[in-house]
């Protein structure tokens, strides 16, 4: 019966499950994941196979002895229980690596290592008359001492050198991925299964080629240990060289057969020196005929001849804020190119900044945390659906919705109204490339709510407060019927319906948080991206009824200095910048909204110094400023106050003073767009003899808000 050994495979953080799967496939038993790696039992052959074939592990430790420890002397005594002359010769050199974790025995790791070394040396002297030497650089034997809590474990490192070293890395670049981390990224992305089906792999930022080479090794059944050279086995007295040679020969045979199965692998990078390094590393690994590496800017990438496979990449990511901001346009380009050129592909992108990952606009199906050295990174896995896949998915969703049945006559009635609205709105939205719009607004008095449909994924459901004569139970019934009708009509999960009560509010209450905390989501409008928050505030971060007004601003902004007063989340500033404004100035008294506005601008690539953000009360700022502008957007709240204001703003009372003050900032031939959602508002033109005022309200009401003409008012104002 073969001897059973106790092993520990060290591996990168958060890859224990991948290592466990490897160990099981290689014959390991009693597998147990721990924070630092995986413990298991197996034969000598199991350990040898692990050293040859593990793609994820960094070390393989053989457990020699465990014992209780309460003092440094226990280290000496426990170490002496191992017959060291049965493990290696006295002519061999050795070194000791030590870790002390939460131990009651208070001593320095170096002191513990010294006690262990003394015990080993003393035993050799007593048995052989001589002692082995210490070599901390290139030892024949590497030992490991772990003191954790009240237990010490002594192990021998059978891998010798770190198993992440494959031997092919001739040249390296800045912040390179370790080889075993690269393999873990590929395995986490499912590349082993993709390669088995012949799927290609593309890395658009290939650097020095680590992901490309690891992919070829996975697809080609290439044992990583074949190239490594030295292990920790050669000087171990129990080493079975015949078994090792047999396993090496088997691995070489599998490598030769596997080469024929390697699918197409492509790497691109815009840096000439990096591409040269990748080519050299591919040659060293023996894959120069299997991996295509080319110098090309990612924005120019087009591979129409390839069938779908895996796109995986580790694009540059900055550590400082200014570096991250400068990379936002690149990540937007990544998303655009992938959607355009890689339909049907699986996408995995590793980045050290989650905001950069979000900037691609790709919705990840899964996000895993990895560590590139000390930097915590996220691997975002997405899927770029082909048109056929989207059509198939739509048919499945339609069948699923058709199977949903409204639970009551009221829900049936509400569902029918939604279907009627959607029949015309969907055609209009598709024709005008609109992905977020209002689908219902108190069309039936008993079902009093405003419902907006965002990105075909989320519902923002604002229920109007019922009149006092409506009993609470009846109002609750109507709410349930509306939700049931929504679920029976649209492809929704309940978690994607965000319900709020809309009632008349005064002052800052209309902007206060709801008490929940939801992350921002990404929406698109006319080719621009905006962050929205559907859960935390009464409003979402964008006013859908101002869609046309924003387009007007873009059409008027070229070469203009633009001012956005009471700017909220800066959506109008984005349109102005996109329309070619010379400068934009975004003013709001809220730190939260001003930061949100900046994020919206950066998300659309507007990071230059010509875009300014001012935290100020707009009324006070108007009193003090000496600036002037060509184009102004004025969309004040109906009512506002704050600790920083000397007085409240009541629009119905103060609009004349507000418009006059703002219009003084207009340059010759300048234009101001004044808008309000105050439904009882009335503007008296004769109160402004020096201004030309044109009512453009009807021109700015979008199709999805036509049912309520008073959703907002808007005027175009110029100085006469």
Short descriptors:
single chain; about 725 residues; alpha/beta; VC0802-like; Rossmann fold; Transcription Regulator spoIIAA; 4 domains; eight-stranded mixed β-sheet; seven-stranded mixed β-sheet; about 35% helix; elongated
CATH superfamily assignment of the largest domain? Vaccinia Virus protein VP39
Name of the CATH architecture of the largest domain? 3-Layer(aba) Sandwich
Specify the number of helices. Answer: 19
Query: What proportion strand?
Result: 15-25%
Descriptive account of the structure:
The protein has 720 residues and is an alpha/beta fold. It folds into four domains: 5-157, VC0802-like; 179-225 and 256-384, Rossmann fold (3-Layer(aba) Sandwich); 401-503, RNA methyltransferase domain (HRMD) like (Transcription Regulator spoIIAA, 2-Layer Sandwich); 521-719, Rossmann fold (3-Layer(aba) Sandwich), CATH 3.40.50.150. 34% of the residues lie in helices and 25% in strands. It has 19 helices and 30 strands. The strands form six sheets. The chain has an eight-stranded mixed sheet with strand order 2-3-1-4-8-7-5-6. A seven-stranded mixed sheet has the order 11-10-9-12-13-15-14. A hairpin with an 8-residue loop joins strand 26 (639-640) and strand 27 (649-650). Helix 2 runs parallel beside helix 8. The longest helix is centred in the middle third of the chain and has 23 residues, at 409-431. The chain is elongated, with a radius of gyration of 34 Å.
């Amino acid at each position: 019966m073969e001897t059973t050994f106790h092993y520990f495979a060290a591996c990168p953080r958060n890859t224990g499950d991948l290592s466990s799967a490897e160990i099981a496939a290689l014959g390991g038993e009693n597998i147990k994941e721990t924070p630092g790696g995986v413990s298991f039992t197996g034969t000598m052959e199991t350990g040898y196979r692990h050293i040859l074939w593990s793609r994820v592990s960094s070390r393989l430790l053989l457990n020699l002895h465990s014992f209780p420890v309460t003092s440094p002397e226990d280290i000496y005594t426990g170490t002496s229980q191992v017959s060291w002359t049965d493990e290696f010769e006295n002519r061999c050199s050795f070194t000791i690596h030590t870790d002390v974790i939460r131990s009651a025995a208070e001593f320095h790791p170096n002191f513990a290592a010294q006690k262990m070394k003394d015990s080993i040396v003393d035993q050799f002297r007593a048995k052989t008359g001589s002692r082995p030497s210490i070599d901390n650089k290139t030892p024949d034997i590497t030992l490991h001492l772990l003191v954790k809590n009240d237990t010490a474990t002594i192990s021998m490192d059978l891998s010798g050198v770190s198993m992440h070293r494959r031997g092919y890395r001739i040249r390296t670049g800045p912040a390179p991925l370790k080889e075993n981390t690269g393999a873990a990224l590929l395995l986490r992305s499912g590349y082993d299964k993709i390669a088995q089906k012949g799927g290609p792999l593309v890395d658009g930022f290939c650097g020095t080629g680590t992901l490309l080479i690891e992919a070829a090794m996975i697809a080609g059944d290439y044992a990583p240990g074949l190239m490594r050279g030295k292990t920790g086995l050669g000087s171990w007295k129990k080493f079975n060289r015949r078994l090792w040679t047999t396993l090496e020969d088997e691995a070489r045979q599998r490598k030769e057969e596997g080469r024929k199965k390697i699918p197409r692998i492509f790497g691109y990078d815009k840096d000439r020196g990096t591409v040269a390094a990748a080519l050299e590393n591919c040659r060293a690994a023996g894959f120069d005929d299997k991996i295509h590496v080319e110098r090309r800017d990612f924005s120019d990438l087009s591979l129409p001849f390839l069938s779908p496979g895996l796109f995986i990449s580790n694009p540059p990511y900055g550590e400082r804020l200014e570096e991250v901001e400068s990379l936002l346009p690149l990540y937007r380009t990544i998303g655009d190119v992938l959607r355009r050129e890689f339909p049907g592909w699986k996408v995995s992108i590793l980045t050290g900044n989650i905001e950069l990952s979000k900037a691609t606009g790709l919705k990840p199906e899964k996000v895993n945390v990895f560590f590139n050295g000390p930097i915590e990174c996220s691997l975002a896995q997405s899927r770029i659906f082909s048109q056929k896949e989207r059509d198939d998915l739509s048919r499945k969703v339609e069948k699923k919705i058709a199977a949903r049945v409204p639970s009551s006559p009221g829900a049936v009635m509400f569902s029918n109204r939604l279907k009627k609205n959607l029949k015309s709105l969907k055609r209009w939205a598709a024709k005008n490339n609109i992905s977020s719009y209002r689908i219902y607004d108190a069309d039936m008095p008993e079902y009093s709510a405003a419902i907006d449909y965002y990105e075909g994924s989320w519902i923002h459901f604002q229920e109007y407060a019922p009149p006092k004569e409506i009993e609470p139970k009846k109002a609750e019934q109507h709410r349930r019927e509306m939700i049931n009708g929504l679920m029976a009509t649209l492809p929704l999960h309940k978690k994607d319906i965000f319900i709020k009560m809309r009632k008349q509010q005064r002052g800052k209450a209309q902007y206060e948080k709801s008490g929940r905390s939801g992350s921002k989501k990404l929406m698109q409008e006319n080719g621009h991206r905006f962050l929205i928050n559907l859960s935390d505030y009464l409003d979402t971060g964008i006013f859908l009824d101002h869609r046309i007004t924003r387009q007007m601003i873009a059409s008027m902004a070229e070469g203009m200095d633009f001012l956005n007063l009471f700017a909220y989340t800066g959506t109008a500033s984005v349109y102005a910048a996109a329309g070619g404004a010379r400068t934009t100035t975004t003013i709001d008294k809220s730190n939260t909204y001003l930061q949100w506005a900046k994020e919206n601008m950066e998300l659309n690539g507007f990071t230059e110094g010509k875009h300014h953000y001012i935290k100020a009360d707009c009324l006070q700022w108007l009193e003090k400023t000496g600036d002037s502008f060509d184009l102004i957007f004025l969309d004040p709240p109906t009512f506002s106050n704050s600790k920083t204001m000397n007085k409240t703003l009541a629009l119905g009372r103060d609009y004349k003073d507000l418009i006059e003050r703002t219009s003084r900032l207009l340059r010759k031939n300048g234009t101001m767009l004044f808008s309000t959602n105050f439904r009882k508002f009335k503007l008296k033109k004769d109160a402004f003899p020096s201004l030309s005022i044109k009512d453009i309200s009807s021109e700015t009401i979008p199709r999805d808000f036509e049912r309520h003409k008073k959703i907002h008012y808007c005027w175009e104002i110029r100085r006469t």
